[in-house]
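User: Watch each token:
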Amino acid sequence: MQLIQQDPDPLAYLASGEAIDHGHPRVQEAADALRLTTGDAYSYAEAAFEFVRDTIPHSADSGDARVAWRASDVLATRNGICHAKSHALVALLRARRIPAGLCYQRLADDDGSNPLVHGLIALRLPGGDRWSRLDPRGNKPGVDARFDLAEERLAFPVRPELGETDHPGLYAAPHPAVLAALRGSADRQELWRRLPTQL
């Protein structure tokens, strides 16, 4: 998919912010540990993706009611929905100077009801000529997201017949509607009610 940078400044996709706080010691510590097991940027990016996908449960799968949204808090609580996990992965990538941003899909139930905005990421390896989307949501029966920069292996390929769409925007910071829902929710049950259904 051709992504459109919402910020034309390439440095925006390396910047630290409120949600993507890769200057935080907890994020730096995790990045350092991952770097010890990897060599180049590709192997680091793959390790960071698998770390977030596999060791931080999606709170809907684990039943965890807490709402984490800041990358450092996601790493501390080992908890988060797709958006929070995406914040953590982008922070880990940026901590090693790998440009990364946030992107979104509009998904729905199998009958087209209950639409919601799903979060994932895109990265561009140094020297690379394009952005590649990855989905760190976490695998489960029926979901098999993989690290593949040549062919997308996302958790949820969209079904246009159900009104699902891939949003082409690539954001340097979380979309304001998503961040407002995360920050304003006391628990995951409230978060499901507050998450936007479209961007």
Observations:
- The first strand starts at residue 4 and ends at 5.
